[in-house]
Amino acid sequence: MKMKIFIPVLFVFMLALTADAFAQRAGRQGNVRPQQRFSERPAERFERPRQMYNEDCMLPDLTEEQQAAMREHRLIRMETSTAHRNQMNELRARKRNLMTQPETNREAIHSIIDEMTVMKNTMMKDRVAHREAIREILTEEQRIIYDNRSTRRPGERSPLGRHGNAPRMRCW
Which pick of 4, 12, 83, 95 has the fewest CB atoms within 10 Å? Predict the structure, then answer.
């Protein structure tokens, strides 16, 4: 009698274990074992961040004057973008504080949203002005290459997935 009960219970238990094991396979890519995913990756994938900021970003035949002017423009851009980012973070924090209070002041929240919109507008205009300033430094051939390269940030979403295969450039 015990054997008649034990075998079906054992069968259900084994079925539950295998179903649980199959449920954990969601992160895998096809029939690739986890060891293969890490051991068979190409070496350049690990070197990509260093490459991206050095060799990939370089335009052909840049003169020393062009590089110096680009560095100067880039430093100015970094200073202004840092100031914009800090102001936006302050506005976000203020908006979050107002929204979490028991009595919400809609007019104050709307005015902060308007300030944030103005800030985003100026940030976008500064980005375009910086890009145009860099384009003025370049020769015609360099300008064509610069315009054809993508301006997405590394890791930004693309139609091809999280990182995508499109060329990236965030140098100047």
Answer: 4
Residue type, 55: E
Q: Where are the domains of the chain?
A: 70-153
pLDDT digits (tens, 9 = 90+) for 41-89: 555 555 544 444 444 456 888 899 999 999 999 999 999 999 999 999 9
Q: Are 117 and 155 in contact (CB under 8 A)?
A: no
Query: How far is 167 from 172, CA to CA, in rounded Å?
Result: 15
Domain 70-153: which topology?
Answer: Four Helix Bundle (Hemerythrin (Met), subunit A) (1.20.120)
**The tokens of 69 are what?**
């002017």
Do 172 and 70 form a contact (C-beta atoms < 8 A)? yes
* Alpha-carbon dihedral sign for residues 64, 168, 136, 144: positive
User: What is the rounded distance in angstroms from the CA atom of residue 25 to the CA atom of residue 18?
Assistant: 11
Rounded distance between C-alpha atoms, residue 142 and residue 40, angstroms: 37
> What is the C-alpha separation between 154 and 169, in angstroms, rounded?
8
Q: Count of alpha carbons within 13 Å of 87, Cβ hemisphere only?
A: 16
